């Protein structure tokens, strides 16, 4: 048998083998990229929703987002290297550890009128920025 190809045939066979190899790779891939993309999409959705939440509901929205974030992180655990996982874990721990005062940013040194039961005014814009920054950091570590 003689397997001599003309240049056009060789180019056609090379292209066909390349496409076939790509199809096999994409079909049998572990789904790592898809899981990472799903994680980034989930976290982006949560981050974008914080822009729509009223100030007085921001603390509750943070608390409600914690299970969704932990679940999303657990799904990509095996898809990240040790260093990226540690960085993502640190960002998730910082996000999970935010307290009510971290989100409300009340100036506890603010003098309220004596005998009043009022709290100092809250600065929700700083808390909202802190939340979105930590969520963006999670996305960065997962890419």
Mean pLDDT: 81
Using the alpha-carbon principal axes, give the shape. rod-shaped
Distance between the termini: 50 Å
CATH topology of the domain at 31-103 and 118-142: the name is Four Helix Bundle (Hemerythrin (Met), subunit A)
Structural class: mainly alpha
Radius of gyration in whole Å, from Cα? 25 Å
The percent range for strand residues is: under 5%
* Continuous helix count: 6
The strand count comes to 0
Low-confidence runs (pLDDT<50, min 5 residues)?
none
Helix content: 55-70%
Q: Brief description of this entry?
A:
The protein has 143 residues and is mainly α. It has helices spanning 7-27, 32-50, 58-75, 82-96, 100-104, 124-142.
Structural write-up:
With 143 residues, the chain is an all-alpha fold. It has a domain at 31-103 and 118-142: Four Helix Bundle (Hemerythrin (Met), subunit A) (Up-down Bundle), CATH 1.20.120. The protein is 68% helix and 0% strand. The protein has six helices and no strands. It has helices at 7-27, 32-50, 58-75, 82-96, 100-104, 124-142. Helix 2 (32-50) packs antiparallel against helix 3, helix 2 (32-50) runs antiparallel to helix 6 and helix 4 (82-96) runs antiparallel to helix 6. The protein is rod-shaped and about 100 Å long. The mean pLDDT is 81.
Strand-helix topology:
Blueprint: H1 7-27, H2 32-50, H3 58-75, H4 82-96, H5 100-104, H6 124-142
Helix pairs in contact: 2-3, 2-6, 3-4, 4-6
């Amino acid at each position: 048998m003689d397997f001599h190809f003309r240049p056009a045939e060789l180019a056609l066979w090379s292209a066909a083998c390349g496409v076939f190899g790509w199809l096999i790779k994409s079909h049998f891939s572990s789904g790592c990229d898809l899981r990472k993309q799903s994680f980034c999409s989930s976290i982006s959705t949560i981050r974008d929703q914080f822009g729509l939440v009223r100030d007085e509901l921001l603390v509750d929205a943070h608390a409600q987002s914690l299970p969704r974030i932990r679940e999303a992180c657990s799904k990509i655990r095996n898809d990240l290297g040790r260093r990226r996982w540690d960085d993502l874990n640190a960002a998730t721990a910082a996000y999970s550890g935010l307290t009510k005062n971290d989100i409300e940013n009340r100036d506890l040194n603010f003098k309220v009128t004596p005998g009043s039961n009022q709290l100092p005014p809250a600065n929700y814009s700083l808390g909202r920025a802190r939340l979105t920054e930590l969520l963006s950091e999670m996305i960065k570590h997962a890419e």
